[in-house]
TrEMBL record:
This is AhpC/TSA family protein. PROSITE patterns: THIOREDOXIN_2. InterPro entries: AhpC/TSA, PXL2A/B/C, Thioredoxin-like_sf, Thioredoxin_domain. Residues 1-176 form the Thioredoxin domain.
Length: 178
């Protein structure tokens, strides 16, 4: 019997609700969002965008899973603030899933450099996504991908901490089940 190390790895890490990404992706396609640290204003902006996308996700029959580096209590509080209590939440402080999906860490310039400053100003001051206490790994970048039957069918990897996915483009991908 052939083993698939990727699928095996996905089956070892349960969400706070007890389901793994492989179980979720076998049942229905999953939008998996990798957050930066919990204090990041861009992370908060992504959560707010996900809240706004709930109808679009339901229309596409996509489940939502959020991977983060926070402990469950901190994550639960942050997700509740954005009305995302019922999403699958994966606490990954050791960055196992981040590494498995090759979500890279940014350089200092990519996380707090001058190219990020203007976006940070707009996100915090103009849009009100105030930063919190910096989290475990402030250099971890974000990503979003669609996982279907254990395979990545679409993905977006942030180029810097202010680079957020184009949700319409990502969600318009063709799903194998359709």
């Amino acid at each position: 019997m052939n083993s698939d190390p990727f699928r095996e790895s996905l089956s070892r890490i349960p969400s706070s609700q007890g389901k793994t990404l492989i179980e979720l992706s076998e049942a229905a396609p999953v939008l998996v969002v990798f957050l930066r640290h919990g204090g990041c204003p861009f992370c908060r902006q992504v959560l707010d965008q996900l809240k706004s996308l709930s109808a679009q996700l339901a229309e596409r029959h996509l489940q939502l899973a959020i991977v983060h580096m926070m402990d469950e209590k901190e994550a639960s509080s942050l997700l509740a603030r954005y009305e995302l209590r019922n999403v699958y939440s994966f606490s990954d402080p050791d960055r196992t899933l981040y590494e498995l999906f090759q979500v890279r860490r940014g350089s200092l310039a990519e996380t707090v450099g001058p190219a990020v400053w203007w976006s940070g100003f707009k996100s915090t001051v103009l849009s009100g996504y105030l930063p919190g206490i910096p989290g475990k790994d402030v250099q971890q970048l974000g990503a979003a991908l669609i996982l279907d039957q254990g395979k990545v069918v679409a993905s977006y990897f942030s180029k810097n901490s202010a680079d957020l996915p184009d949700w319409n483009q990502l969600l318009s991908c063709e799903l194998p089940r359709e």
